């Protein structure tokens, strides 16, 4: 299964007390020493940064602070999915889009959903009125602005009750002057150079399965039909669980406990955009052995749960699958869980806690690793575990063959 190494660039944003209030996600890639490695642009670059940020984990990137993100027209007008938590996200909008009715309408919907709108690189408020009425922050580019004009612009922003953010703070004298002018936020290399945050995700690279998912989403089929496709593709399931809790149609962040719940929560509009994005940006290829091992574990957990806790069978499948992702991603399980908006029941099960599903997952992992014990934690006999393992392996092989056909 293709593991993708990710690096997301970020630059801190500071308040008047020089405390970090948030981080801007950078479209230009940076290496791990903070140096620019090139320039990207357009809707695909924006979407890539958003998905990479969610894959690494919003909590790892910004903690409980704000995430500032450049938003292109496709995001603002609603044709591309927005997979960041509304209550933490500041969307940066170019002033030139103030005349775009679809963008203004989209920004109004985003503001109503809890996102903060920021006008980006403003030099003059003339012509920005439609967006100013929705904005909470104005990012001011002082380069090329004479001192009197800059002072007037900051005063205009403050009179509107908006926060003023100074871009490109490069010297101590600039910082002092911007503080005197009444800027609320500050960003620039003087305070902190761009930083690189590494992470990993899995590439949903099975083209046949992606096309099948796209067809089902376009037909707005039942959640059960689409779930069958996603269940058979670990990378798809992983990415779905990553974005579902922060990209739901209702605009609110919430934890999830199963693949079907994630599908329902995300909604058809975001599902369509997500599948389309994966088809456009796939970067690797899968191997059958890794996929089959992961699917076998998930199905085995589900089969055992059906015997004792049928209401938790879907949780058991998701838990079994996710419990293998430390192996797939070659990273600690705690780091994997940090990227996922899981509810407590599912999280405990993945971590093999002393819960009904957690005990099943623990026994299944031991079984796959060939570790036998006198008494299983779940209470199932070795014969029952072996039977479930055989049935699960058959299902995993069939699911993999179906995806390749």
Structure characterization notes:
With 405 residues, the protein is an alpha/beta fold. It has 2 domains: 196 residues, EAL domain (TIM Barrel, Alpha-Beta Barrel), CATH 3.20.20.450; 201 residues, Hypothetical protein af1432. The protein has 19 helices and 9 strands. The longest helix has 23 residues. It is elongated, with a radius of gyration of 24 Å. About 1% of the residues have low confidence.
What's the order of the H and E elements? EEHHEHEHEHEHEHEEHHHHHHHHHHHH
Strand content: 5-15%
| Main sheet strand line-up | 1-2-3-4-5-6-7-8
Under CATH at level 1, the class of the largest domain stands as: Mainly Alpha
What's the main sheet like?
8 strands, mixed, barrel
Number of strands: 9
Structural class label: alpha/beta
Tell me the span between the first and last alpha carbons.
Answer: 18 Å
User: Average pLDDT, to the nearest integer?
Assistant: 86
Please give the radius of gyration in angstroms.
24 Å
Low-confidence stretches: 248-252
Overall 3D shape: elongated
Would you tell me which CATH topology of the largest domain applies? Hypothetical protein af1432
Helix content: 40-55%
Instruction: Report the CATH architecture of the largest domain.
Output: Orthogonal Bundle
Number of helices: 19
Number of domains: 2
The CATH superfamily name of the largest domain is Hypothetical protein af1432
